[in-house]
Amino acid sequence: xxxxxxxxxxxxxxxxxxxxxxxxxxxxxxxxxxxxxxxxxxxxxxxxxxxxxxxxxxxxxxxxxxxxxxxxxxxxxxxxxxxxxxxxxxxxxxxxxxxxxxxxxxxxxxxxxxxxxxxxxxxxxxxxxxxxxxxxxxxxxxxxxxxxxxxx
Length: 152
Known about the structure:
Layout: E1 2-6, E2 9-13, H1 21-28, E3 47-50, E4 53-56, E5 69-71, H2 79-91, H3 100-113, H4 119-126, H5 136-151
Parallel strand pairs: 1-5
Antiparallel strand pairs: 1-2, 3-4, 3-5
Helix pairs in contact: 2-3, 2-5, 3-4
């Protein structure tokens, strides 16, 4: 049995300890913002925050989550999250939208760590988040816009 916090609520999973966190979130908790993309931690669609850092949930066995604090796109909150969401809407970042929850999770974490990211900072933080619609220019614009909103 594994006990952890998911979006501020304590959860217990009593199943196969090798079950990926992604499937616990989607199937057991019924939160579908986290997406299955590649299953090998290469695309970023399954990105969540685990103890404050981005984590690919498709390759994270639930056994490694014991006692951790996991946040999905549904539970994402705070000034950085609000700024990123507002910038994503203002710049009309999504095209198909499938990758966007993972993109947003990574962008928020970047802004929590770096208040005025350079293009290089953005490229490094967003590496591994693949957008099949290639909205990378708008993603970068939105991150810069969110950083500017946070400065006031």
